[in-house]
Amino acid sequence: MRMRSPYRPHLGGNVAAMGGIDADALLWRDAVVTNGGTVSADRLAIISTFIVAEKVAGTWALTDDYWGFWAESQIQALTSLKQRRLATAVNTPTFTTDRGYAFNGTTNYLDTGFVPSTHAVAMTGSNMRIAGYERANLAVTNSYTAGVSDGTNQGLRVGARTAGNVVVGAANCPATNIGSGIMDSRGLTALSRTAAGVFGIYKNGLTGGTAVPASTGTVLPIRSIGIGAIMFSGTWGGYRAATIGAVMVGASLSAAQELAQYNAVQAWATAVGAQV
Amino acid sequence: MARFIVLTAEQAAVVRGVSPVAKWAAIEPVALSDGGFIINEEVLTDPAHNSKTRTLTALTKYDRATIESRLSTDAAIEKGDGK
Question: Which of A230, A252, A221 is nearest to A118 (CA)?
């Protein structure tokens, strides 16, 4: 099925003239090719539509990077959308075309190569966000959808659902439970710390609660963001037997932008048949 | 059910690293509490790692329950969920 053109005249320089495809989508396509992969015309249009939606919502500028694992190939999946960084699939997580990666909860994960202290642009040590889209419901404690931790007050991580039915995570604070009655890990779970110091979660674009952590820090983590497990002060752990379709990191979003990004991510997932 | 093979430190050193044919794939054996290492058996049949793992395919595979008590990595993880 052909996708409708994502061309939006009012975006001016954000959209390239070439077939109405967003300029950043074309750069991502080129990076995938450089990495040894290919991108179909239909998939490029889907990516372009997503990026344009993000730009319209103002969330593109606030998000430092995106990984869409519901891709046509592993090379596509592992080439991040914005910084166009090639992640590494460690110990063969199971990749399914147009769906994402399934992890075993014991040994495998993705190493994104995104190091907050080096690669953050919008994210700061006191304004940070991480979000992951899980495709299978999973309630496991001490396991993380994505993130990194370099110590009690230096880390960014989110686990979409614990055995206690809360979201667990940290944004330069200790691991903190947020929300209650989280009975489904599926969909987009975002954890953020706003510039105003609010620690909160959003589930599928809607607020899921806030928390006051025991302590806080402001120094960005110095190790790479993991997916399906996290790097914890130099050792991989927190393995999560999750099925993950997408992850994004950056600065916090407003409530309206959280909903807008969820809608854009869900539209992206739906376009490839990966929505839950 | 997922299965794993147990490696010695020497075997782990041989297979560790980025694939020579796929720069986006790597093997990183996970340390056990007793000094051994494990990798999941899917690694052994991943074309990206054929050149490194073909000598390991004959080794015995174990299910997760069998190696559970030897896993050590999660002990280092700061607890959430009410802890």
Answer: A221
Among A88, A90, A106, beta carbon nearest to B2: A106
CB contact under 8 A, A75 and B42: no
Rounded (10°) angle between helices A41-57 and A255-272: 170
Q: Does B19 contact chain A (CB < 8 Å)?
A: no
Predicted confidence (pLDDT) at residue B35 exceeds the cutoff of 60: yes
Q: What is the pLDDT of residue B56?
A: 85
pLDDT average, residue stretch A25-46: 98
Strand partners, B17: B27
Indicate which of A85, A106, A182 best probes the interface with B, i.e. most B CBs within 10 Å of its own CB: A106
Asked if A239 and A229 touch (Cβ cutoff 8 Å), the reply is yes
Is B80 in a helix, a strand, or coil?
Answer: coil
Q: Check B25 against A239: CB less than 8 A apart.
A: no
Predicted local distance difference test score (pLDDT) of residue B81: 42
Asked if A86's CB is within 8 angstroms of B78's CB, the reply is no
Contact B5, B66 (CB under 8 A): no
**Spatial CA neighbour of A78 closest among B2, B18, B41, B30:** B18
**Mean pLDDT across chain A:** 94
**pLDDT class for B74, splitting at 50, 70, 90?**
low
How many residues are recorded in chain A?
276
Q: How confident is the model at residue B80 (pLDDT cuts 50, 70, 90)?
A: very low
A168 CB within 8 Å of a chain B CB = yes
Q: What is the mean pLDDT of residues B4-14?
A: 94
CA distances from A161 to A12, A240, B11 (A): 41, 10, 36
**Tokens representing B11?**
């075997």
Measure the CA–CA gap between A25 and A191, rounded to whole angstroms. Answer: 26
Q: pTM for the whole thing? A: 0.92
Cα B14 to Cα A165, A257, B48, B51, distances in angstroms: 41, 48, 15, 11
User: In this complex, is the C-beta atom of A111 within 8 Å of any C-beta atom belonging to chain B?
Assistant: yes
